[in-house]
Amino acid sequence: MAIFSVYVVNKAGGLIYQLDHYAPRADTEKTFSFPLDLVLRPHDERVVVAFGQRDGIRVGHAVLAINGAEVNGRFTADGKDVLEYLSNPANYPVSIRFGRHRLSSNEKLMLASMFHSLFAIGSQLSPEVGSSGIEMLETDTFKLHCFQTLTGIKFMVLADPRQTGIDALLRKIYEIYSDFALKNPFYSLEMPIRCELFDQNLKLALEVAEKAGPFGPGS
């Protein structure tokens, strides 16, 4: 069981805090001979597998490194186009590492704003007045839990589907936010949270939740 990440979104839908706590690694590195038996395509400024799943390499996985050197989107470490490089027989045999694309800061901002909109839509679709909006989204690999305060701040936790005690954890994160962000004289409401004590106490709370599940009284 694990807690993957924490997001804090202000009432306008802006991402004001994000922490990647644990990221499961599913990278696969293999050495290939020419011709490459995978179909690669450019997608969103990166090169991804479009066809030819094998040996842990899946459709949608991105090219992360070539010959041990990290790629930069669609370009190799020395600035060459990845697709052009891999189409040249002279560059083989070649070692390629594939894996899930890591979200950029801009992508995290965009996704937080999108969830804010979905939350509002969920509230409006409710047949009852005063719906809380989306409290949980569930997939086969993770659950997204959301807690919105009376002032409109949203705390979101992405966790393993088997992880327990997330509701209590969300309330604990709210307490930490109140104690170490709101009471910080240098913090402005609705602005990004940059507070070392907030970081330290949040990470401690996540570790406690992973090991012990629900928080007990007075924790």
From TrEMBL:
SUPFAM superfamilies: SNARE-like (SSF64356). Part of the multisubunit transport protein particle (TRAPP) complex. Keywords: Cell membrane, Endoplasmic reticulum, ER-Golgi transport, Golgi apparatus, Membrane, Postsynaptic cell membrane, Synapse, Transport. InterPro entries: Longin-like_dom_sf, TRAPPC. One of its GO terms (biological process) is endoplasmic reticulum to Golgi vesicle-mediated transport. It comes from Certhia brachydactyla (short-toed tree-creeper). Pfam families: Sybindin. CDD domains: TRAPPC4_synbindin (cd14856). Core component of the TRAPP complexes which has a function of guanine nucleotide exchange factor activity for Rab1 GTPase. Plays a role in vesicular transport from endoplasmic reticulum to Golgi and autophagy. May play a role in dendrite postsynaptic membrane trafficking. This is Trafficking protein particle complex subunit.
